[in-house]
Amino acid sequence: MTNTFPFEARSYAFSPYVDCPNWIGGAFTMAASGRSMDVINPRHGQVMGQVADSGRAEVEAAVAAAQAAFEIWRAVPYKERVQVLFRLKGLMERDAEELAWLVSHENGKTYPESVASVAKGIECVEMGVSLPNMVAGGQMDVSRGVNCEVTHEPLGVCAGITPFNFPIMVPLWMLPQALVSGNTFVLKPSEQVPYSALKLAVLMKEAGLPDGVFNIVNGGKEVVEAIADNETIAAVGFVGSTKVAEIVYDRAGGTGKRVLCLGGAKNHLVVVPDADLEMTSSNVVASAFGCAGQRCMAASVMLAVGPVDPIIEGMKGHASGMTLGEEMGAIINAESYDRITRYIDEAEAQGAKVIVDGRGAKVEGADGYWIGPTIIDGVTAEMPAGKEEIFGPVLSIIRVNSVDEAIAIENANPYGNAAAIFTSNGGTARYATERFRAGMCGVNIGVPVPREPFSFGGWNDSKFGHGDMTGMDGFRFWTRPRKVTTKWATQVDQTWMG
Question: pTM here?
Answer without folding.
Answer: 0.95
